[in-house]
Specification:
Elements: E1 14-16, H1 39-42, H2 54-67, E2 72-79, H3 87-94, E3 98-104, H4 107-111, E4 122-124, E5 145-151, H5 160-169, E6 171-181, H6 192-196, H7 199-213, E7 216-222, E8 255-260
Parallel strand pairs: 2-3, 2-5, 3-4, 5-6
Antiparallel strand pairs: 1-7, 6-8, 7-8
């Protein structure tokens, strides 16, 4: 039996998201939070930790290696001190073939994230405050992205439709967004609806965010741990279903909800 660290290889199966509603089905109460205090206060102290376990980070990095460009511009939304990008992306930044940008809530964390290269490429920006637009950090500059990533943070955003709509405008035609989801969170800061749903319900919720904001070809990608034959080794909560002395009892589950900005000619 392989160790937990070896459960990192693809393929990463995807399924098309199918909307259940004809119009946006949520109201403001769905996006209230237990702690409505200013997010800047909550995130004032740097947290130099990773919010998912090492095997899931390895799977995410491998996934990124199959989908992220190595030329152009990438944005890491709600970023921190690590972006989990593969070596190829970091190498492209060093060669000036690519620029990586980031928006987050803690400057000390972002200063430590080497993928941004220069301070001009990252901004402290609270997306829960108007105008809910990643471009606010670079006003007056025509900054557009070839890809956008966001790791286990979409559940904290109280205006997801506006944010995803603005994100679409900030993305080049053919560009993609990759919203990474697990089951860890700060319960007092996630939106109310999130806490009411199953893992699959949360994936569909994020699919709704992208669909109703105009993203196309929305898909749900399963990055949960699998064995050599491609079979899942955990349930949706991350509980390991295979008894083995080489495996822990838990491996963080991981998914990506992704979408594409369609060409204007479509």
């Amino acid at each position: 039996m392989a160790s937990a660290a070896s459960f990192n290889t693809g393929p990463f199966p995807s399924t098309p998201y199918t909307p259940k509603y004809d119009t946006w089905p949520y109201d403001e109460s769905d996006f209230t939070r237990y702690d409505e205090n200013d997010d800047g206060v909550f995130y004032r102290q740097p947290r130099l930790v990773t919010h998912i376990d090492d095997p899931s980070i390895a799977r995410l990095t491998e996934y990124y290696g199959t989908v992220l460009p190595t030329k152009g511009r990438i944005l890491d939304m709600c970023t921190s001190w690590k972006s989990f990008y593969p070596f190829e992306v970091k190498q492209a930044v060093q060669k000036n073939e690519m620029e990586c940008f980031g928006v987050g809530l803690n400057a000390e964390e972002m200063k430590l994230n080497g993928v941004f290269g220069v301070e001009e490429h990252w901004r402290v920006l609270d997306l829960n405050k108007a105008p809910h637009d990643v471009r606010k950090g670079w006003e007056g500059k025509d900054v557009k992205f070839d890809a956008v990533t966001c790791v286990v943070s979409i559940d904290y955003l109280v205006k997801p439709l506006e944010i995803c709509r603005n994100l679409l405008e900030a993305t080049k035609e053919g560009g993609k967004v990759h919203l990474v989801i697990s089951n860890r969170c700060f319960p007092n800061k996630v939106v109310r609806r999130w806490m009411m749903l199953s893992e699959q319900g949360r994936l569909e919720l994020v699919g709704d965010y992208l669909h109703f904001s105009g993203w196309k070809d929305v898909e749900i990608v399963d990055l949960c741990a699998r064995d050599e034959s491609g079979m899942r080794v955990t349930d949706d909560h991350g509980t390991v279903l295979i008894r083995s002395p080489h495996l822990p009892d838990h491996l963080d589950p991981l998914w990506v909800v992704r979408g594409t900005k369609a060409s204007s000619s479509v």
